[in-house]
Design goal:
Mean pLDDT: 88
Number of helices: 9
Distance between the termini: 56 Å
Strand content: 15-25%
Helix content: 25-40%
Number of strands: 9
Order of helices and strands: EHHEHHHHEEEHHEEEHE
Radius of gyration: 35 Å
Largest sheet: 4 strands, antiparallel
Number of domains: 2
Structural class: alpha+beta
Low-confidence stretches: none
Amino acid sequence: MQNNRFTIEHIMPQTLSSAWKKELGDDYQAIYDRWDNRLANLTLTAYNSSYSNKSFHEKKTAENGFDHSGFRLNDFVKGCDQWTEKELIKRSELLKQTALKLWQMPSSNFQPKVVENEVYGLDDDNNYANVKIASYSLMNTPYKLPKRTWKEMYIGVVRALYELDPAPMRQLIAGDRTKLEKVLIDHPENGFSQVADGVYLYTSTDNWNKIHKLRDLFDFYGIDQSELQIEVVSGKKE
């Protein structure tokens, strides 16, 4: 290779003749596109220019053809009577297995540290600032968060409570707001997100306020705060 005596040869040529198209079959173009420059179709020779796009039989049996090659790389080619996708697949696997024997993958007993997510309860005293949320569970029902945002969780929990029993929420909107004043209204307004028909939740607030408003809402509904479990990503900041 260093003295330019040997060059890389495409067994199936880069320009297909009619003979090659016939040998490859009706699907010759797809076979060509798949295998043209892959290792299974490449070898070494000192006679690249004389091979050109001759048929496989000619490349194999001609003077200085594959049958006369001293390269072990061509041993498989010597044993073939044709060069179709079947042979390409076999040679590809042969080269792969040979490479794996020559260049074995290094072994290691290293085990990456698995960091498990933490689970916060609504009734726990945690700092929710800059914490990335992963999912949550409400009354033993798990909920996924496609966007993984606290706002998504906040809306989802309030919507689930409304679907469970809309009466308490309607009561809050009607005026019995207690600690939930201005959190729920019955019309669109900046900073509010729709929960249901005629129910809008104030969501333009930080995580701490979201958690405390959910606590107040759970108390108003008479639901134990431990019924909401929040999974957060360990070591990840929002």
